[in-house]
Amino acid sequence: MGSLIEGYDIPVVNERAVRVAAGILFSAGAVSITLAVIQHSAVPLRPFGVFFMMDMLVRVTVGDRWSPTLALGRLIVRRQPPSWVGAPQKEFAWWLGYGLALLSCAGMGVLGAPLEATLALCGLCLSMLFLEAAFGICVGCALQRVLTKTPPQYCPGDSCRVPE
């Protein structure tokens, strides 16, 4: 997960590519959730949910280099200087995304959850994607700071640095 870059103590990922990937997923998810609301059916959410879940799973198991959305994100920002952030907190965030997607997909399928519950879960995912893409706020990274003993390093805009 991530790349070992000289000058960094831990593996890092390019925050610019991550934000582009979040924007791509947000856009696709927004279209899917809009269609689901209009049609009053979870059917339009299913392909997006499966794609989102698989993209997150690829990131955390095979590696971020193999994620289709991150690959596209890297391609889009290839001419911009990278903005390196810690990979461990992104991995935590991506596991959170995978868990929410898994729960949403299970709700749409075997659990037979009401559409409103599925829309609420998808809305939560979309909210987090929007915060990441638009403002660089990683909710999963913030949760990692609270829920684990290992403090995050190399956060966007030095947001995890403790003031002296």
What's a quick, concise take on this entry?
The protein is mainly alpha-helical.
Characterize the structure shown.
It is a single chain. The radius of gyration is 16 Å and the shape is globular. It is mainly alpha-helical. The mean pLDDT is 92.
Structural key phrases:
mainly alpha, 6 helices, 63% helix, 4% strand, globular
Helix and strand layout, with pairings?
Layout: E1 12-14, H1 15-39, H2 45-61, H3 68-76, E2 84-86, H4 87-108, H5 115-135, H6 139-147
Antiparallel strand pairs: 1-2
Helix pairs in contact: 1-2, 1-3, 1-5, 2-4, 4-5, 4-6
Fraction of residues in helix: 55-70%
Distance between the termini: 31 Å
Shape field: globular
Overall mean pLDDT: 92
Element string (H = helix, E = strand): EHHHEHHH
Number of strands: 2
C-alpha-based Rg, rounded: 16 Å
Structural class: mainly alpha
Tally of individual helices: 6
Strand composition percent: under 5%
Uncertain runs are none
The largest sheet has its strands arranged as: 1-2
The main pleated sheet reads as: 2 strands, antiparallel
